[in-house]
Amino acid sequence: MPAELEMEIVKLLYNEAEEVGWTYLPDSERTASYNRWADDPRIGGRMSLFLKTAQERRVWIKDGPMKEYARAIYGVGKFAPLVANPGSAVNTLVRKALGPDWEPDLSTQEIKPLRVLAYAGEEVTYFTWGPARDLKHLVWAALRAQANGDATPWTLCVVTSFVKALPREERDEHLRIGERCGLRVEHVVGE
Fold first, then answer.
1. Strand, coil or helix: 117
2. How many CB atoms sit inside 10 A of residue 67's CB?
3. What is the Cβ-side half-sphere exposure of residue 53, based on CA atoms within 13 angstroms?
4. Beta pairing class for 154-160 and 184-189
5. Of 59, 112, 132, 137, whose CB has the highest number of CB atoms within 10 Å?
6. Per-residue pLDDT tens for 19-54?
7. How far apart are the C-alpha atoms of 68 and 50, rounded to whole Å?
8. CB 57 within 8 A of CB 38
9. Phi and psi of 110, rounded to 5°?
10. Which H/E stretch holds residue 5?
């Protein structure tokens, strides 16, 4: 598929994803969206010269642009410029979660999950962030680093929404998981 067409299609996908609140959408509704997009003449129809079946188009949408969506809304990856309303920048999330003295070192940024080292004077922490649905990935990355001998503390930032607030019991559970694993968990409302 030509790069120009790919970018046009991804922009359409991202605009629609924003309209439906993709980050907080249940899996069943995401599945319905993949199927609808694969058959949509503006999206799947334009891809049909390169991906013949609806199933091929659906897989491409799911495993390509929509897998990158969470990173793109935070300015990471080739599709980042296609996000109409980017999420909070990492420096904003760091300050909201840790306080005004903390700064992220953007040269340390990694993906899967998104993370950076953050500093406040001599203090350092890995700072990783994502929606509540991705907490398991944040925890796993921290536990793996610790299991492999990295003693740097971790802060896991669960980004929530004004529109869809996280239930108190779920927030409390996150905090208990963090305490059990020796990880700092913070909840921040993204912009």
1. strand
2. 12
3. 3
4. parallel
5. 132
6. 988 888 888 999 999 999 999 999 999 999 999 999
7. 21
8. yes
9. -130, 165
10. helix 3-20
